[in-house]
Each structure stands twice: as structure tokens, then as C-alpha cells.
Amino acid sequence: MSTQLRFRDLPMARESLASVTAVGTDGAVATDATxxxxxxxxxxxxxxxxxxxxxxxxxxxxTRKGEGDEVWHYLDPEHGLTVGQSVTQQIDWxxxxxxxxxxxxxxxxxxxxxxxxxxxxxxxxxxxxxxxxGEASLDKAALTAELKGLVAADHxxxxxxxxxxxxxxxxxxxxxxxxxxxxxxxxIRMVRIGDIDYQPCGGTHVTSTAQIGALHVVSIKNxxxxxxxxxxxxxxxxxxxx
Length: 242
Ligand SMILES: [Zn+2]
Description:
Blueprint: E1 4-5, H1 6-9, E2 15-23, E3 28-31, E4 33-34, E5 48-52, E6 57-65, E7 71-75, E8 86-91, H2 93-112, E9 117-122, E10 126-132, H3 140-152, E11 157-163, H4 164-168, E12 183-184, E13 187-193, E14 197-200, E15 215-223, E16 227-234
Parallel strand pairs: 1-4
Antiparallel strand pairs: 2-3, 2-8, 3-7, 5-6, 5-8, 6-7, 9-10, 10-16, 11-13, 12-13, 13-14, 15-16
Helix pairs in contact: 2-3
The structure holds zinc ion.
Zinc ion (ZN) binds at residues 103, 107, 191, 201, 203, 205.
GO molecular function: alanine-tRNA ligase activity; aminoacyl-tRNA deacylase activity; ATP binding; metal ion binding; nucleic acid binding
Organism: Salinicola endophyticus
Keywords: Metal-binding, Zinc
């Protein structure tokens, strides 16, 4: 059974009601709808809690995709939930908020480094993208200053859907070489950041770039002859270490 992906249209929602549709092995529980983002596109799966009608608070350790749009939440195996039961889903918001901020920051990085993206990863503390940079070189301090400029400019972030045919006619919109854009039912989800970025993405984002906050380029490292790995981190996390 497919799960309604509420995190797509309600990226700022932290709590919602859902109904259990399937109970799997290893503590897996699927629901008819979810705010929990399932691991994908370099972004970790959400954690949080399910609260039952009789007040039990069950920890959700991870969230993964199943078949199609089905989403599985991983709880302790003795969760006791059964099909048809209602639960209040609460996301671990500080963690998700950090993922959303870092994810959106990586979109900005892809604007400033206009080369093919060969890989990436999003964490609550750090995020990185690998670029097929060839012979080009980058300056850490200059890139940090440009990144802070795009954050401060407070560009709005929004999403929309276009047809697969429309995307196929404009292959330049796809920046990520290693991950195919999320497809389904002939439609592609596009994420727009002001007039600076427009690319297919199924992840969660903040609604304006100022929400990203203060961050900087930690390192630019060689990953083979052509690839460079650029890692970002929050300014506050490095305070006191310098
Ligand atoms: Zn994205």
C-alpha cells in the first residue's frame, strides 16, 4: 500500500495523525500517510516518536522507502502496534531542521560550483557534495563568502511538478550525475530557489535561504583525478575549536 508523502507538501510540519497500514519484520511499521522523510538522495531518514491513543510513546529510530511510495518506520520490535491503529507522528524536529538547512545549503553550493555532482551526503552537523571539477580550482574562503551571500539574500524556496517529458526535453536541469531524479506517475518534483536554482529533487528544504543560517566551507579535497569533495559545516559547531 502506498503512503501519502506529507513531508513533501508540509516540510515545516512536525506532528500529524496517521493510521497503521502494515506491520513488518524488525519493528517496521507502515502508515497511510507520513511526515517522516525516508532515507534517500543523500538525506538520512527521519527519527522521532509515534504516540498511541492510550499514551504510549514509541521511538522511531529510522525511516526507509519500501515498494513504490510505501514508507516504513523502524521502531523497537516490541512496539505492539496493529493494522488500523491511529498514531500521532512526531518528528525529531531539531535533527530534521538541520537536515533541511544543510540540504538547501547544498543546493546553493551547486549554484556556486557549476559542475556535475557525482555524489553527496547530508548530516545534521555536516554536508558534502562531490563535483566532477576537472582542472578547475576553488578557493575555500571565497566560496564561503559567496555561500554566505546567497544565504543572506534570503531567496524563497518552493517546489512544483513538471512532466517527465518536460524534464527529458531540458536535460541541463539535472545537475546530479550519480542519482536519477525521483520519478513516478509521469511527474517530476522540481525545487526552485529564487531565480538562482531549479532542479529535480525529492528532499525536504527550508522555505527561504536565510533560514539556513551561518555556515562555511570546511574543506575542499581531491577525490581522484577529476573529483573534488566540498564539505560544509555550521559556524556555531566550530566555535571554540579555532
Ligand atoms: Zn533538494
